[in-house]
Amino acid sequence: MTDFIRRVKSNLADIFYTVKCPYCKNVIEKNGYACEKCAKSFPEISIIEYAVGGYKCVSPLPYKGDFANAIKRFKFRNQGVYAKQFAMLMVERIVREYKDKKFDIITCVPMHKNSLKVRKYNQAELLARQCAQILNKPYFDTLEKIKENKAQHSINSRERAKNVKGVYQVITKDLIKDKNILIIDDIITTGNTLGECAKMLEKAGCKSICCATMCAVNIS
């Protein structure tokens, strides 16, 4: 493809494709991740939580109000297009909070194949792939979900730890051996899901694990 054709296609895309703020849905600049008004509402300080097992998790936004509504549209209403905009904000906080970390692999919390058929995409994978692209790091599927369980948001906090036991397994141990891994999900609530995934990776021999999500739920 010639440079001229590439430029033409890019210009046509600018004409026919508009980028919207994920939070208020107003049109924004092509490379923006939020409108100016919504960006001003972002917390200046990253939210730091810990998944079960003590694995640090960094999130830019609390799961409430317009932020929660944006994630719900992204997750349940076929708005996967928001992945890049969310990832831009996530990477900003990942770089800030994990500045001394060097990641070898970026991965995500997997979905069961039956759930994937219904939703058509794994929102955590979309985020992870975009974060990997921005950070210029490789993305790999390191885990698979081998059992269907109840949705974590549908059960109480006491049931959540039991609900994720035996649900995930490592795909290829050689891939993750001695690697520094960043695992991505959309939301951290109790930290049971991320904690179980991290535990499985650690058992398989990775060197270190950090976590990041778009939003964090304060359940205290």
What report would you give on this structure?
By secondary structure, the protein is α/β, with parallel strands linked by helices. 40% of the residues lie in helices and 20% in strands. It contains nine helices and ten strands. Strands 3, 4, 5, 6, 9 and 10 form a six-stranded mixed β-sheet that branches. Strands 1-2 form a two-stranded antiparallel sheet. Strands 7-8 form a two-stranded antiparallel ribbon. The chain is globular. The model is unreliable at 7-16 (pLDDT under 50).
Q: Which oligomeric form is depicted?
A: single chain
Uncertain runs:
7-16
What percentage of residues falls in helices of 4 or more residues? 40-55%
Overall mean pLDDT score? Answer: 88
Major beta sheet summary: 6 strands, mixed
Q: Total number of β-strand segments?
A: 10
- Strand-and-helix sequence, N→C? HEEHEEEHHEHHEHEHEHE
Q: What proportion strand?
A: 15-25%
Which descriptor suits the 3D outline?
A: globular
What's the number of helices? 9
User: Given the helix and strand composition, which structural class is it?
Assistant: alpha/beta
Radius of gyration: 18 Å
Query: Alpha-carbon distance between the termini?
Result: 55 Å
